[in-house]
Write a structure and sequence with these properties.
The complex is a heterodimer of chains A (184) and B (349). Chain A is α+β, with helices and mostly antiparallel strands and 184 residues long. Chain A is 32% helix and 38% strand. Chain B has nine helices and 14 strands. In chain B, a hairpin with a 6-residue loop joins strand 1 and strand 2. In chain B, helix 1 packs parallel to helix 3 and helix 2 packs across helix 3. In chain B, 30% of the residues are buried. Classes of the chains: A alpha+beta (184), B alpha+beta (349).
C-alpha cells in the first residue's frame, strides 16, 4: 500500500540554481546539489519571462528565458514529456502578443548540461503559470524563507561543502537588495 | 490515437475485471468449509455472473456469499469472515474505498444516529489517525461499542462518502473487545490551516466529474459506472484532487466545487458548458491546471487517511509576506553576505 512519495519542489532563486552544477543519483532518483546544502529533484522558481522560442530539436519543444534580479535560466518544455508546460508556452507564443514580459511561477526538474565546455543548469518545466505581481511576491517570499532555512541548517551544509568551494558566494548584498526592492 | 488509447484502456479494464473475478473466487473458495460440497468452477461462475452485471469487488463477494449461503443452507457470516487472522491496518494507511481490512483502536466518539438501518456511528482512533465508522444493523446484538473502550474491528470494508474514506461494519464484520494501550490520535476533524503550500498539480481524472445519483451514494463514476449501483444517471460535480507542496512535504488535497469557484471563478454550470463545447470533459481539468498550477493558497480543512479535505480556501496574507521578505533579506545580508566576505580567506584554502 505504500507508494513512493512525490519529490518536493525545493524553493530556490535562479542565482542559486545557476551556481548549483553538481548532480548525482540516489535510489534511482536524480538530484542536483544545491549550494545552500539541500538536494533537489524538483524546484519551484519565480521570475520574469524574457523570451519564448520554439527550440531547435527534432521533437516539438519550446525554450524560455526567465530572469530574476541578477541571474537568468533556460526553461524548456517538450511536447512529449511535459505537454501542459508546452501548451502554456505555445499559447504565450501564439496568442499573447504582450508576453514577454510577464511574471511567472514554474515547477520543474533541474537539468545539468554542458555547452562550450561550461556546465550549466536548465529547468525542464512541468507546470508554468503566468501570474500577477502579488503571486510573484508570494513565491519570492517563500523562496527567501526556504533559502534562509537551508543556510541556517548546519548539518546540510556539509554536503554542499564537499562539492563547492562556498555555499554563499552566489549571494551578494546587491542581489538581496534587489529582491527586497522588487517585493516592497 | 486517443481512440486507440481508449480501446487499450477498455481492454485493460476487462483484464482487470477478469483478474478480480479469479482473485475473488479464489479468496472466497479457500475460505469455504471443507464439508461444503462445492467446486471452484461453481464459485467462479457465480462471480462471472455478477461481473456480467458490472458487479465486482466487495459487492460481488457479498452477493456470491449470499447465494452460496442460500443454496447450501449455511451462515453467510461464516463464509465471509475469512480474514480472521488478517493483520491490523493502521488508520493512516487507509486511503482507498472497497478495501477489506481490520482496525484496532479506541472509540473516541459516538454520534447520535437516527437512521434505522445504522446501529452505531462514530470515530475510531489508533496511534496513527482517526476514521469514521458506520456499524450497520448486524447480528452481534450482545456487543455495544462504548466510548473510551478499545476494540478490534475485523473484516470491515472501506467506503467513500463525499470524498471521505470511512470504515463500514456490515454483517461480515466482527467486533472483539481488546485491551491495548495506545497513544491515540485524539481528533483530526478539527480545522487545520496549511500555509506556505502551493497547488502544484491536479490529477487528470479530476475537474468535471460524474457522481452516482442514487440516494446518498455520491460515489465517483468510473466509465459511467458506479462501483455499487452499476450504470446510473450521472450528477455532475466540479472537484480538484491534486498535489500541494510546501517545499518540505507533499500531500493530496481535495477541493470541492464552491472552493474551486472561489479560486478560479468557474462554476459547475460553466464547466459543463465548457466540456459541451469541446465535446470532452478533459478541457476542464486542463483549464484548471493552466489557471492554478502553481499558485499559493491558505488551505483550511482536515486530514483523513492521507488526504487533506479542504473546507475553506483563502489567498495568503500578502502584506505579512512582504514584511517577512524585509526581515529575512536583512538577516541573510547580515549573516551570510558580510561573513562570507570576511571569511573568504578561510573558505578558499
Amino acid at each position: 500500500m505504500s507508494k513512493k512519495s512525490r519529490e518536493q519542489a525545493k524553493r530556490a532563486f535562479i542565482g542559486e540554481l545557476y551556481a548549483s552544477t553538481y548532480e548525482f543519483s540516489e535510489d534511482d532518483v536524480n538530484y542536483i546539489q544545491l549550494r545552500t546544502g539541500d538536494k533537489a529533484n524538483r524546484v519551484l522558481i519565480t521570475g520574469t519571462i524574457m523570451e519564448v522560442d520554439e527550440g531547435n530539436s527534432e521533437k516539438p519543444m519550446y525554450k524560455m528565458t526567465v530572469t530574476d534580479p541578477t541571474e537568468q535560466i533556460t526553461v524548456t518544455a517538450f511536447q512529449e514529456y511535459s505537454p501542459e508546460a508546452y501548451e502554456t508556452m505555445h499559447r504565450i507564443n501564439t496568442e499573447m502578443p504582450s508576453v514577454p514580459p510577464a511574471y511567472t511561477v514554474i515547477v520543474g526538474k533541474p537539468q545539468i548540461y554542458t555547452t562550450n565546455g561550461e556546465t550549466r543548469v536548465s529547468i525542464q518545466a512541468e507546470q508554468v503559470n503566468i501570474v500577477g505581481k502579488e503571486e510573484r511576491d508570494m513565491a519570492i517570499a517563500d523562496i527567501i524563507k526556504h533559502t534562509k532555512l537551508r543556510l541556517d541548517n548546519e548539518y546540510d551544509s556539509r554536503r554542499s561543502e564537499e562539492r563547492y568551494q562556498s555555499r554563499t558566494d552566489w549571494i551578494t548584498k546587491q542581489y538581496l537588495d534587489k529582491i527586497n526592492e522588487a517585493v516592497n | 490515437m486517443k481512440d486507440c488509447n481508449k480501446k487499450l484502456l477498455r481492454v485493460g479494464k476487462h483484464i482487470q475485471s477478469m483478474n478480480s473475478v479469479q482473485d475473488n473466487a479464489e479468496e472466497l473458495y479457500e475460505s469455504l468449509n471443507n464439508d461444503l460440497d462445492i467446486d471452484f468452477e461453481e464459485v467462479k461462475s457465480l462471480f462471472e455472473e455478477f461481473a456480467e452485471y458490472q458487479v465486482s469487488g466487495q459487492a460481488a463477494k457479498e452477493s456470491v456469499a449470499q447465494r452460496i449461503a442460500k443454496d447450501y443452507d449455511v451462515n453467510k457470516n461464516a463464509l465471509l469472515t475469512t480474514n480472521n487472522n488478517q493483520s491490523v491496518t493502521k488508520i493512516e494507511n487507509i486511503d482507498e474505498p472497497d478495501e477489506w481490512l481490520s482496525i484496532e483502536g479506541e472509540i473516541v466518539e459516538l454520534w447520535n444516529n437516527e437512521t434505522e438501518s445504522i446501529n452505531q456511528v462514530g470515530l475510531i482512533a489508533d496511534d496513527t489517525g482517526v476514521i469514521k465508522f458506520t456499524r450497520w444493523e448486524d447480528e452481534q446484538t450482545d456487543v455495544t461499542l462504548k466510548e473510551g473502550e478499545t476494540y478490534k474491528l475485523q473484516s470491515v470494508v472501506t467506503g467513500e462518502y463525499k470524498d471521505n474514506i470511512q470504515a463500514n461494519l456490515n454483517e461480515a464484520a466482527e467486533i472483539i473487545e481488546t485491551e491495548v494501550e495506545m497513544d491515540i490520535q485524539q481528533r483530526t476533524r478539527e480545522n487545520e490551516v496549511l500555509t506556505g503550500y502551493a497547488l502544484v498539480d491536479i490529477y487528470d481524472s479530476e475537474g468535471l466529474i460524474k457522481r452516482c445519483s442514487v440516494d446518498e451514494c455520491t460515489r465517483v463514476l468510473s466509465d459511467g459506472d458506479c462501483s455499487e449501483h452499476g450504470d446510473v444517471e450521472p450528477v455532475f460535480d466540479l472537484r480538484i484532487k491534486g498535489v500541494i507542496d510546501d517545499g518540505e512535504t507533499t500531500q493530496t488535497v481535495v477541493i470541492q466545487s464552491d472552493e474551486v469557484d472561489e479560486m478560479t471563478g468557474l462554476t459547475i454550470e460553466e464547466a459543463q458548458e465548457m466540456a459541451k463545447d469541446a465535446l470532452d470533459t478533459q478541457v476542464v481539468v486542463e483549464h484548471l491546471k493552466q489557471e492554478l498550477c502553481p499558485t499559493y493558497w491558505r488551505f483550511t480543512g482536515f486530514e483523513t487517511g492521507r488526504q487533506f479535505i479542504c473546507t475553506d480556501i483563502e489567498r495568503p496574507d500578502i502584506d505579512g509576506v512582504r514584511r517577512l521578505v524585509d526581515s529575512w533579506t536583512a538577516h541573510m545580508t547580515e549573516k551570510y553576505v558580510m561573513n562570507s566576505e570576511s571569511e573568504d580567506g578561510d573558505n578558499y584554502v
